[in-house]
């Protein structure tokens, strides 16, 4: 893994060098609205862009130093036989699938009633069932109050009572913008309550010459979104009038086992924004499992505005869901209707064809 990361970093360095970018390695701090200090060197610029990303956060509970985060997960000296993952977002759910798939006895502890808050609820429920079928111990409404070293093991103590003993604890309870020590306050840059840089629709901070993109502005913390924000800023500074990003139709995926992918509005969000909606669902066993004998099931869902027939959202739980959702994102962003989906011929036998063969709305 470290070798691959070094390879990727090398690719990016070469791209910068070929573009003629001067690269200065070191800790940078703002000295004002148009000055940056790096390694004792003062640099002046008409525009400054901050894209420092985010960092994992571990709650300050007794024994928190015994836990690792996603930063350390790929450098473990050996595969732990028993793993507890604390959290309920992308990273927690994905690492639960990774460790379980590698053979660790895996427990996921989440303080809420159901993980992946913000995704379509039936998809979350479906994924929970499938993960349990694969052997992951999901413990919802579980709040860890302390970690304790017991020999070579780590013991988790829960607020609700009870304990769990494992060999490794991974915390994935959120990330915080990397804004500490950058001199932002000295430059007059306003931060929100979470420490993220407040920006306008053109990614300018409270100081017009200082812009920010990516995790550090705490909008949508996804790599492709940061790239799109960067492209917007480049076009803006080049004197163009770039099209603003549509944050409402960003496709996203959780690379769980099986994967969950989504674009557009969930059923819950659609009911809040639209007078009448129709929802189409298909819960099925993939045809290939008729031969494999596996019991894994897939779920597809379409959320439709009943008045305009426009497809407002598409959601899927299946191993191939991320690949399929990328194509559906184009359709949702283009404003296609359910009738246009129905008029599209499916490719048989595929899981993707389910999206164009859904005919009966849910009751």
How does this structure look, described?
By secondary structure, this protein is of the alpha+beta class. It folds into three domains: 26-50 and 176-245, FAD/NAD(P)-binding domain (3-Layer(bba) Sandwich), CATH 3.50.50.60; 58-173, FAD/NAD(P)-binding domain (3-Layer(bba) Sandwich), CATH 3.50.50.60; 252-356, FAD/NAD-linked reductase, C-terminal dimerisation domain (Enolase-like, domain 1). Helices cover 26% and strands 24% of the residues. The chain has ten helices and 19 strands. The protein has helices spanning 2-18, 70-73, 90-102, 121-133, 184-187, 223-237, 267-273, 289-292, 321-334, 338-342, and strands spanning 28-30, 35-38, 41-44, 48-50, 54-56, 82-86, 105-109, 137-139, 144-150, 153-158, 163-166, 168-171, 175-177, 210-212, 252-254, 260-264, 277-284, 298-305, 311-317. A hairpin with a 2-residue loop joins strand 2 and strand 3 (41-44). The longest helix has 17 residues, at 2-18. The protein is globular, with a radius of gyration of 23 Å. The relative contact order is 0.12.
SSE order, as H and E?
Answer: HEEEEEHEHEHEEEEEEHEHEEHEHEEHH
Which ranges are low-confidence, i.e. pLDDT below 50, for 5 or more consecutive residues?
none
CATH third-tier fold name of the largest domain: FAD/NAD(P)-binding domain
Radius of gyration: 23 Å
- What's the CATH H-level superfamily name of the largest domain? FAD/NAD(P)-binding domain
